[in-house]
Amino acid sequence: MFENFEFKPGKITYNPYKLSPEDLTDLEWVTEDMVQIEYPNSYILDVGWYGDASKGNGKFVVYIIKEKNWEQPVYREEHKTLEDLYERMKGIIKTITNISTNNEQNIE
What we know:
Elements: E1 11-14, E2 35-39, E3 43-52, E4 57-66, E5 75-79, H1 82-102
Antiparallel strand pairs: 1-2, 2-3, 3-4, 4-5
């Protein structure tokens, strides 16, 4: 489902969904583990769904993690719709690319 995004220099380590947004008719396929990308200098970009999708309750959550410290994410962002998530992904990818390769801490 994230095949249309360029994650370089990150490497996709988890991406079980091969759907595009146009293929989706409901949110029953979403889970807490949707996609994970590893970046240089021990950064991780993680996207998941938190809540009950079958009831329309929940949100997509994007995390930027440093050195596997899930308790204190570098960045966290929430989206109610897949469209909102897709709209922000390029900015999020640019942010993690900058901080993982240049050690910048500016979040866009």
